[in-house]
């Protein structure tokens, strides 16, 4: 049988992360993984979530019914308050609840992209976003940048050259680079977006995991006073638990209207049961205190990883200290190809994600992404010992 699949299936790629997760699973449970983007289960508010679900069930059977497409209004009200504290003004009616922020990326792509349209992204950037863009047969073009964000000159050049449908960015504690854009670069991006009449998709799942309280990072959406240019998405996956699959999106009214309309076609609505449970959780538990605890702990995890790297020769490895989020991005000696080394690394009982798959063009083979949230600080230490032993051996 020859299946007559849609042309767009030719654009589908398997995710490097999923492939590596499969390899790790085959190796057994002794592998210490810095590969995925998982939070540390030990910090999950397990009991509080259990109680929240009990409360939902005590409230009757309504939560088991179909709900409205944009989601449970009391939760949208709480999110409206939370984004206000970041300087983003979005009324509850202007917030669409989604099945994780990944669905927001997908729905936005669906309403924006026709075959051969262009999306500009950072290079490297978040893999699953690229998967979504390409699944709608768009072309993804990388904009060069540095530790402070996209280079405005290259951005302007590519805006002129490609007339992209939108620019996708993760400006606060990005995945994979763990970097945070400077205020200046954020403003420069927004100015160019206005000038070239191009939307910005600002993806901010990590913004709350901020290690240094005294620093402020203004979301680009908060700078968009005209509220015309930025579509902003957030998530509870990193701050509560990923399995609730609750994210949200806000942005210009016509964008939200189309996204809500097409969400009906995608899944009618996201789970009212989970949304109500999260609502109870947020009213009963001090989420900000929980996030402060997480942040403090993850800073410890990151420090253990970083302290280990500091003991190594600067020629072997270099990185910028993450100021939040879940990832440390490293450059290793140029003679090391991190993709080729991975199979051997697994034999040492440790795993990472090579940097190459995150690039939309010109992959740098001597880069890697290390996640510091999934393992305990003790395990991180052991994992880092294994990792450096493998790197040193590969240099011989
Ligand atoms: N955006 C970025 C940058 C991410 O790293 C992730 C998760 N790894 C997501 C979006 C999707 O998260 P979720 O769907 O769980 O909200």
Automatic annotation (TrEMBL):
CDD domains: AAT_like. Keywords: Aminotransferase, Pyridoxal phosphate, Transferase. Its cofactor is pyridoxal 5'-phosphate. It comes from the Bacteria. Gene3D superfamilies: Aspartate Aminotransferase, domain 1, Type I PLP-dependent aspartate aminotransferase-like (Major domain). GO terms for molecular function: transaminase activity. Coiled coil: none annotated. SUPFAM superfamilies: PLP-dependent transferases (SSF53383). Residues 31-387 form the Aminotransferase class I/classII large domain. The keyword Cell cycle does not apply. This is PLP-dependent aminotransferase family protein. It comes from Brevibacillus choshinensis. The lineage of its organism: Bacteria, Bacillati, Bacillota, Bacilli, Bacillales.
């Amino acid at each position: 049988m020859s299946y007559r699949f849609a042309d767009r299936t030719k654009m589908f790629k398997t995710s490097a992360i999923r492939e590596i997760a499969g390899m790790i699973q085959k190796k057994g449970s002794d592998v210490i993984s810095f590969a995925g983007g998982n939070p540390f289960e030990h910090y999950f508010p397990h009991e509080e979530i259990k109680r929240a679900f009990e409360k939902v069930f005590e409230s009757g059977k309504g939560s088991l019914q179909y709900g409205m497409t944009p989601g449970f209004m009391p939760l949208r009200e709480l999110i409206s308050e939370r984004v206000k504290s970041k300087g983003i003004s979005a009324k509850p009616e202007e917030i669409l609840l989604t099945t994780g922020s990944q669905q927001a990326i997908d729905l936005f792509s669906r309403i924006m992209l026709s075959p051969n349209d262009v999306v500009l992204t950072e290079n490297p950037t978040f893999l699953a976003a690229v998967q979504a863009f390409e699944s709608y047969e768009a072309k993804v073009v990388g904009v060069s940048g540095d530790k402070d964000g996209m280079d405005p000159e290259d951005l302007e050049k590519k805006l002129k050259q490609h007339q992209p449908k939108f620019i996708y960015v993760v400006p606060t504690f990005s995945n994979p680079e763990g970097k945070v854009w400077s205020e200046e670069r954020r403003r420069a991006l927004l100015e160019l977006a206005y000038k070239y009449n191009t939307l910005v998709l600002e993806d901010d799942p990590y913004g709350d995991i901020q290690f240094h309280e005294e620093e402020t990072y203004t979301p680009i959406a908060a700078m968009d006073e005209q509220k015309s240019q930025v579509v902003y998405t957030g998530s509870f996956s990193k701050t509560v638990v990923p399995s609730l699959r609750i994210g949200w999106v806000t942005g210009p009214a016509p964008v939200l209207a189309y996204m809500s309309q097409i969400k009906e076609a995608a899944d009618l609505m996201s789970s009212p049961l989970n949304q109500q449970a999260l609502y109870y959780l947020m009213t009963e538990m001090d989420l900000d205190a929980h996030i402060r605890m997480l942040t403090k702990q993850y800073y410890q995890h990151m420090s253990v990883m970083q302290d280990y790297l500091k003991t190594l020769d600067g020629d072997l490895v270099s990185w910028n200290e993450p100021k939040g989020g879940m990832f440390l991005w490293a450059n290793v000696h140029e003679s090391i190809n991190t993709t080729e080394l991975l199979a051997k690394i697994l034999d040492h009982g440790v795993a990472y994600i090579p940097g190459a798959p995150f690039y939309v063009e010109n992959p740098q083979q001597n880069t890697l992404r290390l996640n510091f949230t999934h393992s305990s600080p003790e395990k991180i230490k052991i994992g880092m010992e294994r990792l450096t032993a493998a790197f040193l051996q590969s240099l011989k």
